[in-house]
Amino acid sequence: MRTTARADELTPEELVAGGKALARKIRRRKPRFLALLGVTAYRIAFDERKAVVGPQERTIGETRLWVLPNPSGLNAHYQVGALAEAFAQLREASAV
To answer: Which of 5, 7, 8, 50 has the greatest CB tally within 10 Å of its CB?
Structure first.
């Protein structure tokens, strides 16, 4: 694992390895929700090529997965209002 300035500096192999390591931690800690930032990284790390932002059908044990847009300024697809709405949807779902 290593830090990078941009997600595109990570290789697919690194993303897959990171997804596996994260899944092990989630199985051990068993949170209700796991929020993942960045749909492209999620698609690669978890081999979910058609994933979209929002709740996922896939779970890790009992943990529900929720993909959120990457809030990086490099992500031009989501403006502040759309980012806030995506994060609010997770907040509402997790409050139940």
So the answer is: 7
Task: Find residue 64's DSSP bridge partners.
Answer: 33, 59
Q: What is the CA radius of gyration of the chain?
A: 13
CB atoms near residue 44 (< 10 Å)? 22
Q: CA–CA separation, 32 vs 9, rounded Å? A: 30
**In one letter, which amino acid is 40?**
T
Express each pLDDT in 6-21 by its tens digit: 888 999 999 999 999 9
Q: How far apart are CA 64 and CA 2, in angstroms?
A: 26
From the list 4, 16, 1, the residue with the least C-alpha distance to 70 is 4
Q: What angle (nearest 5°) sits at the alpha carbon of residue 2, between those of residues 90 and 68?
A: 15
pTM for the model stands at: 0.89
